[in-house]
Amino acid sequence: MKSLFLQSSIVRSTLCLSVLLTPLALLHAQDTLTPGTPYNIVNENSGSCVGASAQGTANGTVLEQYVCANGTYSSQASQQWVFTSVGNGYYEITDVNAPSEAWNVVNNGTASGSLMQIWTYAGNPNEEWQAVALGGGFYEFVGQGNGLCLDTPGDSTANSLQYDIYTCNGTEAQAFKLVTPTASGGGTGNCSAVSNISVGGTTYTPQWCQEFNGAAGSPDTSVWNFDLGNNGGWGNNEVEVYCGPPGYPNNPSQCPTTFSTSTNPVYIDGNGHLVIQPINVNGTWISGRMNTEGTQNFQYGILEASIQAPNTTNQGLWPAFWTLGADINTVPWPGCGESDIMELWSPSLDGGSGPGGNHSTIHTAVTGGDGIGGTFTFPSGEANDTAFHTYGIVWSPNLMEFFVDNASTPFFTVTPSSLPSGDTWPFNANLFTLLNVAVGGTLGGSTSGLSNPQPMVVDYVRWYTAQ
Asked: What does pTM read for this prediction?
C-alpha cells in the first residue's frame, strides 16, 4: 500500500470569553461522583475549568485555571478528568488527554501555597484526593498527603492561574462543580449513551465521543482543527484546496464565507453526521481535512469511526481516517508514525480496494511512503459506499490490530517485529486523528471524470480505554 500523507502541522489556540456557570451547565452538574466518567471540574467563583496548561501531557505540566473551552463546559480533553478509587475514600484524578498523568503537588509540598501540577501516578499520598461533597453538586478536594484543599490563589478569576493547596476554608475559591462535557449543535457529543466494548476478555470504556448531533452547522472548532489550502499538493500531487468552516482563520479565498450545506465542503448535516463533500468551484476542487492536533491526543485503547465512504470505483477521490504522532513538530514524518485506519482509492490504481474493501497501513521512519499494510474485503453484497461501516484499531503497547465492523476479528496486526531491521516503533506515544477526502494525487488519480461526487459521511468518532 502506497501512501504519503505528509503533514503541514497547524496548531491553533482558541481564545474564549470567560463566562460564569450558567443554568444550562448546572443541568449537567453531578451530585454523585461516578468513577471512570470524564468530568469538567469547574470553579464556583470563576466558572472556569481545571486543566493542564497548554494541553500539556508531560510530567510537571501546570494544573491551571482556564476558561472552559466551550464556555460553560469543555469538550477539550485536557480539561476533562477521570476519578479512579484508590481506597479509603480517596481518588487518583487523571487527565483524559494524558491518562497516566494525575494531580500532584509540586515537590511533594505539604504547606499552604504549594503549587499543583500533573505527574505520572505512582501511588503517593500527595497524588490522592478525597472529594468532599459541599451540597448543590459542589465538592472540595482534600489531599491525603497534606490535609489541604485544592485552592484558587487569591480567589482569582484569571486565566492561566496555577492552582495550589491551602487550608480548607469553605470559600468559593475551593468549591468545584463536576460537569459532564455535553453540548448541543456544532457536532460536539458525549459518551453518555455509548456502550462499553469487550474484546478478548478486556472491557473498553468510552472516553471521548464525537457524535455530530445537533442542528446543521459547522463542526466544533474547539475540538477540530482544519488544514487549509493546497500546500504544494500535500506531498502527493493532490489538487484540492482544503477549507475550514466559514470564518475560519486564514481560510483560502476559494472557501465559502457563509454557511450552506450545498456550498460548504465540511459540515454537520443536522441528522447526526459529519459530511466532507468535495465541490468543484469554478474549476477548483475544495474539500475538508480536519484533525485533533493540540485538542485531543490518544494513547492505547480503541479508536474507531463509523463511515459511509464516497464511491471510489473510478479515479478522483482518496478518502481517509488516520492518525499521526503527536510529536510530529519535533519528530518529522514519517518518524513520528502514521497509521491509516481507513484509506480508499480506485482499483485502477496500485491495487486499490474501491467500494469492495479497505486498506490499513502504518508508516514509520524506514518503511516511509510505502509502509506496511493489510487489506480487508467485504462479504458479498456489502460495500463501503452503500452503508456505514466501523473502521478502527485496538491498540496497546507494541501492538496495533486493525478491524472493520468487529474489533474482535482484526484483519491486520502489526508489532515492532513487523518492522524492517533498523526501524523504530513510534506507536507507544500519543497520536492525534484526522479525517479527510483528498482529490487527485498519487492514489486519487485523474479527476477528468469526476463530477458531483458522493460525500464521505461520518456517524461518529470514538475513543475507548481499557478498564
From this structure: 0.66
